[in-house]
Amino acid sequence: MRHLYRCPLRWADMDAYGHVNNAVFLRYLEEARIDFLSPPDRRFRQGSVVARHEIDYKRQLVHRREPVDIELWVTQIRAASFTITSEVKDADHLYVRASTVVVPFDFETQRPRRIVDEERDFLEKYQDDAQEEAVAA
């Protein structure tokens, strides 16, 4: 199963070359990740932080009225981290493929924490190990 987030493009996302700036894609991925991990049931209510991003830019994305789709799924779950793979695309093109390592975090103690059972159960619904090989390609 994959999570789908419809991401609007903003005029301010464009750079001097007329396409979405590479750094803006991090914001798009953040919006999709927050949509995935946040309410309605506050899946990661204790918090999480990003430990690593890896992004492959496949094609330029220029401003348009239609949003882009961001599909994301889980490719790895460890005791105290998990990896989300994301694709920014539309029906015709893949613009970005990214991998993000997320660490559950206790903001009160300012330390990483282990994934709790409720979180693991949620993540496993979106896990697709077979897709990890395709992402690496």
Describe this structure in words.
The mean pLDDT is 90. Helix content is 23%, strand content 35%. It is built from three helices and six strands, in the order βαβββββαα. The chain is of the alpha+beta class. The chain has one domain: Roll (Thiol Ester Dehydrase, Chain A). Strand 3 and strand 4 (82-89) form a beta hairpin. Strands 1, 2, 3, 4, 5 and 6 form a six-stranded antiparallel β-sheet that branches.
How is this fold's topology laid out?
Elements: E1 3-7, H1 22-37, E2 48-57, E3 68-77, E4 82-89, E5 94-106, E6 111-112, H2 117-125, H3 130-136
Antiparallel strand pairs: 1-3, 2-5, 3-4, 4-5, 5-6
List keywords for this structure.
alpha+beta; 6-stranded antiparallel beta sheet; single chain; Thiol Ester Dehydrase, Chain A; 23% helix
